[in-house]
Amino acid sequence: MKRRDFLTHTLAAAALSTFPARTLLSAEGKKRKLLYYERSSGFIHPSTVLREDGLSVTGRVLKKLGETLGYEVVCTKDGRIFDGSLEEYDAFLLYCCGQLTAAGGEKNSWPLSAAGEKNFYQAIRSGKGVLGFHSASDTNKSGGPGFENRPESERTEYIRMLGGEFIVHGSQQKTTLTFPEPIQLPSLKKLGTSFQTPVEEWYALKNFNPDMHVLIVQETEGMAIEGGNACYNRPAFPCTWARMEGKGRVAYTSLAHNCRVWEEAWLQEIVLDLMKFVTGKLDLDLTPNISTAAPGAYELKRN
Protein backbone atom coordinates (compact mmCIF):
# COMPACT_ATOMS: atom_id res chain seq x y z
CA MET A 1 0.00 0.00 0.00
CA LYS A 2 1.37 3.46 -0.96
CA ARG A 3 2.05 5.90 1.88
CA ARG A 4 -0.71 8.29 0.67
CA ASP A 5 -3.24 5.46 0.50
CA PHE A 6 -2.14 4.21 3.91
CA LEU A 7 -2.64 7.65 5.50
CA THR A 8 -6.00 8.10 3.83
CA HIS A 9 -7.15 4.68 5.03
CA THR A 10 -5.87 5.32 8.56
CA LEU A 11 -7.51 8.73 8.89
CA ALA A 12 -10.81 7.44 7.55
CA ALA A 13 -10.78 4.53 9.97
CA ALA A 14 -10.02 6.87 12.87
CA ALA A 15 -12.90 9.15 11.92
CA LEU A 16 -15.34 6.26 11.74
CA SER A 17 -14.09 4.95 15.08
CA THR A 18 -14.63 8.33 16.76
CA PHE A 19 -17.98 9.19 15.17
CA PRO A 20 -19.94 6.06 14.18
CA ALA A 21 -21.89 6.58 10.96
CA ARG A 22 -25.14 5.40 12.50
CA THR A 23 -25.23 8.44 14.81
CA LEU A 24 -24.22 11.00 12.15
CA LEU A 25 -26.61 10.02 9.37
CA SER A 26 -30.21 8.90 9.36
CA ALA A 27 -31.38 5.91 7.36
CA GLU A 28 -32.04 8.34 4.49
CA GLY A 29 -28.45 9.61 4.58
CA LYS A 30 -29.34 12.96 6.20
CA LYS A 31 -27.33 14.53 9.01
CA ARG A 32 -28.70 13.62 12.44
CA LYS A 33 -30.18 16.32 14.63
CA LEU A 34 -30.25 17.50 18.23
CA LEU A 35 -33.27 19.45 19.48
CA TYR A 36 -32.49 22.46 21.69
CA TYR A 37 -35.56 23.71 23.60
CA GLU A 38 -34.99 27.01 25.41
CA ARG A 39 -38.45 28.29 26.30
CA SER A 40 -39.25 29.85 29.68
CA SER A 41 -42.62 30.27 31.36
CA GLY A 42 -40.79 31.74 34.37
CA PHE A 43 -37.58 33.77 34.58
CA ILE A 44 -36.06 34.45 31.18
CA HIS A 45 -32.32 33.91 31.30
CA PRO A 46 -30.26 36.39 29.23
CA SER A 47 -28.32 33.56 27.59
CA THR A 48 -31.56 32.28 26.02
CA VAL A 49 -32.75 35.62 24.63
CA LEU A 50 -32.72 35.70 20.83
CA ARG A 51 -30.28 38.14 19.20
CA GLU A 52 -30.39 39.85 15.80
CA ASP A 53 -29.25 36.68 14.04
CA GLY A 54 -32.22 34.77 15.47
CA LEU A 55 -30.08 32.76 17.89
CA SER A 56 -29.45 33.09 21.59
CA VAL A 57 -25.91 33.06 22.99
CA THR A 58 -26.56 29.50 24.11
CA GLY A 59 -28.04 28.45 20.80
CA ARG A 60 -25.08 29.81 18.86
CA VAL A 61 -22.59 27.91 21.04
CA LEU A 62 -24.58 24.68 20.91
CA LYS A 63 -24.85 24.86 17.13
CA LYS A 64 -21.08 25.22 16.89
CA LEU A 65 -20.47 22.31 19.27
CA GLY A 66 -23.04 20.21 17.46
CA GLU A 67 -21.22 20.75 14.18
CA THR A 68 -18.01 19.36 15.69
CA LEU A 69 -19.97 16.18 16.47
CA GLY A 70 -21.59 16.03 13.05
CA TYR A 71 -25.04 17.15 14.24
CA GLU A 72 -27.42 19.86 13.17
CA VAL A 73 -28.74 21.54 16.33
CA VAL A 74 -32.33 22.72 15.88
CA CYS A 75 -33.04 25.63 18.25
CA THR A 76 -36.65 26.31 19.19
CA LYS A 77 -38.98 27.90 21.71
CA ASP A 78 -41.95 26.07 20.19
CA GLY A 79 -43.01 23.17 22.41
CA ARG A 80 -45.50 22.00 19.80
CA ILE A 81 -42.57 20.27 18.09
CA PHE A 82 -42.86 17.52 20.72
CA ASP A 83 -46.32 16.59 19.41
CA GLY A 84 -44.82 15.11 16.26
CA SER A 85 -42.34 12.35 15.60
CA LEU A 86 -39.04 12.80 17.43
CA GLU A 87 -37.26 10.05 15.54
CA GLU A 88 -34.86 12.39 13.70
CA TYR A 89 -33.38 13.68 16.97
CA ASP A 90 -30.72 11.74 18.84
CA ALA A 91 -30.98 13.89 21.97
CA PHE A 92 -32.72 16.86 23.56
CA LEU A 93 -30.86 19.86 24.98
CA LEU A 94 -32.84 21.84 27.55
CA TYR A 95 -32.47 25.37 28.90
CA CYS A 96 -36.08 25.67 29.99
CA CYS A 97 -37.61 27.28 33.09
CA GLY A 98 -41.02 27.06 34.75
CA GLN A 99 -43.72 24.59 33.76
CA LEU A 100 -43.26 22.81 30.45
CA THR A 101 -46.99 22.90 29.74
CA ALA A 102 -47.74 26.38 31.17
CA ALA A 103 -49.00 29.15 28.90
CA GLY A 104 -47.49 32.63 29.02
CA GLY A 105 -43.86 33.48 29.42
CA GLU A 106 -41.85 34.53 26.40
CA LYS A 107 -43.43 36.09 23.33
CA ASN A 108 -43.52 33.92 20.23
CA SER A 109 -43.03 30.75 22.24
CA TRP A 110 -45.29 27.82 22.92
CA PRO A 111 -45.45 25.26 25.74
CA LEU A 112 -45.57 21.50 25.40
CA SER A 113 -49.02 19.97 25.27
CA ALA A 114 -49.84 17.16 27.69
CA ALA A 115 -49.45 14.74 24.78
CA GLY A 116 -46.14 16.35 23.79
CA GLU A 117 -44.77 16.00 27.30
CA LYS A 118 -45.74 12.32 27.35
CA ASN A 119 -44.08 11.88 23.96
CA PHE A 120 -40.93 13.54 25.35
CA TYR A 121 -40.61 11.08 28.26
CA GLN A 122 -41.36 8.10 26.05
CA ALA A 123 -38.64 9.16 23.59
CA ILE A 124 -36.06 9.37 26.38
CA ARG A 125 -36.96 6.02 27.88
CA SER A 126 -36.80 4.49 24.43
CA GLY A 127 -33.21 5.65 23.96
CA LYS A 128 -33.04 9.38 23.21
CA GLY A 129 -30.54 11.35 25.30
CA VAL A 130 -31.27 14.51 27.26
CA LEU A 131 -28.90 17.20 28.57
CA GLY A 132 -30.19 19.91 30.89
CA PHE A 133 -28.49 23.23 31.55
CA HIS A 134 -28.85 25.48 34.60
CA SER A 135 -32.57 26.32 34.89
CA ALA A 136 -33.58 22.94 33.49
CA SER A 137 -33.69 22.03 37.21
CA ASP A 138 -36.05 25.00 37.82
CA THR A 139 -38.64 23.30 35.62
CA ASN A 140 -41.69 21.22 36.60
CA LYS A 141 -40.74 21.49 40.26
CA SER A 142 -42.11 19.16 42.91
CA GLY A 143 -43.58 21.71 45.34
CA GLY A 144 -43.46 21.58 49.11
CA PRO A 145 -41.15 23.47 51.48
CA GLY A 146 -38.07 24.75 49.72
CA PHE A 147 -35.48 23.40 52.15
CA GLU A 148 -36.91 19.92 52.48
CA ASN A 149 -36.17 16.90 50.30
CA ARG A 150 -39.31 15.30 48.90
CA PRO A 151 -39.72 11.51 48.85
CA GLU A 152 -39.03 10.20 45.36
CA SER A 153 -42.67 9.17 45.00
CA GLU A 154 -43.75 12.80 45.53
CA ARG A 155 -41.40 14.33 42.98
CA THR A 156 -42.63 15.20 39.52
CA GLU A 157 -41.93 12.84 36.65
CA TYR A 158 -39.62 15.45 35.15
CA ILE A 159 -37.51 15.91 38.31
CA ARG A 160 -37.19 12.14 38.75
CA MET A 161 -35.95 11.97 35.15
CA LEU A 162 -33.50 14.88 35.46
CA GLY A 163 -32.13 13.80 38.85
CA GLY A 164 -32.24 16.99 40.96
CA GLU A 165 -34.20 20.16 41.64
CA PHE A 166 -33.50 23.88 42.07
CA ILE A 167 -34.25 25.52 45.43
CA VAL A 168 -32.89 29.06 45.19
CA HIS A 169 -29.68 30.95 44.45
CA GLY A 170 -27.76 33.68 46.23
CA SER A 171 -25.59 36.48 44.90
CA GLN A 172 -23.17 35.80 42.09
CA GLN A 173 -19.70 34.86 43.33
CA LYS A 174 -16.75 32.58 42.74
CA THR A 175 -16.60 29.04 44.04
CA THR A 176 -14.55 25.88 43.68
CA LEU A 177 -15.62 22.85 41.68
CA THR A 178 -14.09 19.48 42.51
CA PHE A 179 -14.08 16.33 40.41
CA PRO A 180 -14.65 12.95 42.09
CA GLU A 181 -12.15 10.25 41.24
CA PRO A 182 -11.82 8.61 38.84
CA ILE A 183 -12.30 11.66 36.62
CA GLN A 184 -14.01 10.50 33.44
CA LEU A 185 -14.69 13.59 31.32
CA PRO A 186 -11.63 14.56 29.25
CA SER A 187 -12.47 18.24 29.79
CA LEU A 188 -12.20 17.81 33.58
CA LYS A 189 -8.93 15.91 33.38
CA LYS A 190 -7.44 19.00 31.73
CA LEU A 191 -8.51 21.12 34.72
CA GLY A 192 -6.90 18.87 37.35
CA THR A 193 -8.80 17.73 40.45
CA SER A 194 -10.51 21.08 41.07
CA PHE A 195 -11.27 24.38 39.37
CA GLN A 196 -11.66 27.93 40.69
CA THR A 197 -14.58 29.42 38.78
CA PRO A 198 -15.22 32.95 37.57
CA VAL A 199 -18.03 34.94 39.20
CA GLU A 200 -21.24 33.10 38.35
CA GLU A 201 -24.76 32.34 39.61
CA TRP A 202 -24.81 29.13 41.66
CA TYR A 203 -27.91 27.06 42.25
CA ALA A 204 -28.67 25.41 45.55
CA LEU A 205 -30.13 22.01 44.66
CA LYS A 206 -32.07 19.22 46.34
CA ASN A 207 -34.06 16.04 45.58
CA PHE A 208 -31.04 14.24 44.19
CA ASN A 209 -31.61 10.83 42.64
CA PRO A 210 -29.65 8.21 44.58
CA ASP A 211 -28.75 6.44 41.31
CA MET A 212 -26.84 9.40 39.83
CA HIS A 213 -23.16 9.37 39.04
CA VAL A 214 -21.71 12.68 40.22
CA LEU A 215 -19.22 14.25 37.80
CA ILE A 216 -18.71 17.66 39.43
CA VAL A 217 -19.21 18.74 43.04
CA GLN A 218 -19.95 22.33 44.02
CA GLU A 219 -17.93 23.15 47.10
CA THR A 220 -19.47 25.54 49.64
CA GLU A 221 -16.45 26.22 51.84
CA GLY A 222 -15.27 29.74 51.16
CA MET A 223 -18.57 30.93 49.68
CA ALA A 224 -20.49 33.87 51.17
CA ILE A 225 -23.20 32.40 53.41
CA GLU A 226 -24.77 35.43 55.08
CA GLY A 227 -28.23 36.85 54.40
CA GLY A 228 -29.45 35.85 50.95
CA ASN A 229 -26.48 33.51 50.60
CA ALA A 230 -27.59 31.30 53.49
CA CYS A 231 -28.59 28.69 50.89
CA TYR A 232 -24.87 27.88 50.59
CA ASN A 233 -24.51 27.22 54.32
CA ARG A 234 -24.50 23.47 53.73
CA PRO A 235 -22.06 20.70 52.78
CA ALA A 236 -20.84 20.35 49.21
CA PHE A 237 -23.36 18.94 46.74
CA PRO A 238 -23.53 17.72 43.11
CA CYS A 239 -23.78 20.31 40.34
CA THR A 240 -23.15 18.02 37.35
CA TRP A 241 -24.12 14.38 36.98
CA ALA A 242 -25.20 11.58 34.66
CA ARG A 243 -27.68 8.74 34.94
CA MET A 244 -29.93 6.48 32.87
CA GLU A 245 -33.67 6.91 32.37
CA GLY A 246 -34.77 3.64 30.82
CA LYS A 247 -32.61 3.34 27.71
CA GLY A 248 -31.96 7.09 27.58
CA ARG A 249 -28.79 8.81 28.75
CA VAL A 250 -29.42 11.81 31.01
CA ALA A 251 -26.96 14.52 32.05
CA TYR A 252 -27.42 17.80 33.88
CA THR A 253 -25.19 20.71 34.89
CA SER A 254 -26.16 23.75 36.94
CA LEU A 255 -23.33 25.68 35.24
CA ALA A 256 -23.76 28.28 32.51
CA HIS A 257 -25.96 31.14 33.71
CA ASN A 258 -23.98 34.11 32.42
CA CYS A 259 -23.56 34.81 28.73
CA ARG A 260 -19.82 35.41 29.10
CA VAL A 261 -19.33 31.97 30.69
CA TRP A 262 -20.88 30.34 27.60
CA GLU A 263 -18.08 31.92 25.57
CA GLU A 264 -15.29 30.41 27.71
CA ALA A 265 -13.37 27.37 26.45
CA TRP A 266 -13.48 25.40 29.73
CA LEU A 267 -17.29 25.54 29.82
CA GLN A 268 -17.68 24.68 26.15
CA GLU A 269 -15.39 21.67 26.56
CA ILE A 270 -17.47 20.37 29.49
CA VAL A 271 -20.68 20.88 27.49
CA LEU A 272 -19.16 19.08 24.50
CA ASP A 273 -18.26 16.08 26.67
CA LEU A 274 -21.80 15.96 28.07
CA MET A 275 -23.19 16.17 24.54
CA LYS A 276 -20.97 13.25 23.57
CA PHE A 277 -22.30 11.24 26.50
CA VAL A 278 -26.01 11.80 25.80
CA THR A 279 -25.52 11.01 22.10
CA GLY A 280 -23.63 7.79 22.81
CA LYS A 281 -20.22 9.00 21.66
CA LEU A 282 -18.68 8.87 25.13
CA ASP A 283 -19.29 6.03 27.56
CA LEU A 284 -19.15 6.67 31.30
CA ASP A 285 -19.14 4.37 34.31
CA LEU A 286 -22.48 5.33 35.86
CA THR A 287 -22.02 3.50 39.14
CA PRO A 288 -23.97 5.58 41.73
CA ASN A 289 -21.48 7.57 43.80
CA ILE A 290 -23.36 10.40 45.52
CA SER A 291 -22.78 8.84 48.96
CA THR A 292 -19.01 9.10 48.51
CA ALA A 293 -18.67 12.06 46.11
CA ALA A 294 -20.92 14.37 48.13
CA PRO A 295 -21.91 12.61 51.37
CA GLY A 296 -23.61 15.72 52.80
CA ALA A 297 -25.67 16.43 49.68
CA TYR A 298 -29.03 15.80 51.34
CA GLU A 299 -28.29 18.23 54.18
CA LEU A 300 -29.88 21.43 52.92
CA LYS A 301 -29.02 23.85 55.73
CA ARG A 302 -26.44 23.76 58.46
CA ASN A 303 -27.60 24.75 61.94
Low-confidence spans: pLDDT under 50, at least 5 residues?
Answer: 1-23
- Return the string of H and E elements: HHEHEEHEHEEHEEEEEHHH
**Major sheet characteristics:** 9 strands, mixed
Rg measurement, Å? 19 Å
Instruction: Name the quaternary structure.
Output: single chain
What is the strand content?
Answer: 15-25%
Q: What is the number of helices?
A: 9
Shape: globular
Mean pLDDT: 91
**Order of strands across the main sheet:** 2-1-3-4-11-10-9-6-7
Q: Tell me the distance between the termini.
A: 72 Å
What is the β-strand count?
A: 11
Percent range of helical residues: 25-40%
> Could you say which structural class the secondary elements and strand pairing correspond to?
alpha/beta
Task: Please tag this protein with its features.
single chain, 303 residues, alpha/beta, 9-stranded mixed beta sheet, two-stranded antiparallel ribbon, 9 helices, 11 strands, 19% strand, disordered N terminus
